[in-house]
Amino acid sequence: MVRTKILVGLLAGAAAAASVVPAASAATAADPVPSGAKVVTVTMTASSMALSTDSITAGNTVFKAVSGDGKDHELQIVRLHSGYSLQQFGSDIGKAFGGDVAAIRRVDSHASFRGGAETHFRPGYMSVPLKAATYYLLDQDGNSVRKLTVTGAFQHRPAPQAQATITAFTYGFGLNGALPHQGWIHEHDQSDQPHFYVFNRVKADTTYREVNSYFKSGAQGQPSFALHANVSSGVISPMTGQNFYLDMPAGRYVVMCFWPDDDTGMPHAFMGMWKLITLR
Ligand SMILES: [Cu+2]
User: How far apart (Å, rounded) are the C-alpha atoms in residues 197 and 243?
Assistant: First the structure.
């Protein structure tokens, strides 16, 4: 079925089991959704996905991803262009992560990726402006797909305000300020390919040279600099973005993208799309 997640295979490895480690404040963490926001809650298990509603009016929409079985799940929102079926997409996405450049190009050009959020022990949150259309919600860690129907004129509803923006470029990331370890950030894709963001905590003294040689050597095994905390946000298409709620321990991170490249078939991180950053 539809599985886009090969991603966390690299730095994650051992970390996958501990993905999205609960913060000390997990039990008491406040709901980061502003009052008046439209929220769609998506509860996922290995075999199911339940939506709090399957039809909404166009406008800013917060998605709250919840794990219903205590396992890791990754919500992804996608719109398929006219003539590109869910079945074709499912077939292509598997080939795309296998490095099939023709499949990558079909996926990149016929699907609009509108973001997503990971959940494990805690809910994950993201927010995106949605115009009237039919969208599919996928669980990258399960087999579930649900349709979300968005209708009507765009309503200007309250949305979470981002504290800083991290922009995806062709094989790189740029920041306009310090990203909060706990707070809303904006992710924007300013390039001609889809991208997603994996934040993996690393030791404080990790150097550019260490990370670079890890990727240059083919990313074999678990690097000595990697720590367990990691979270992935969903895929966003060129010239789109999402607001994403980060809730991680403060510290040093590598942010990277593993979307397969439309020329080489390689995950972008191997083409230099990673950056050492600090979540404050
Ligand atoms: Cu990328």
Answer: 12
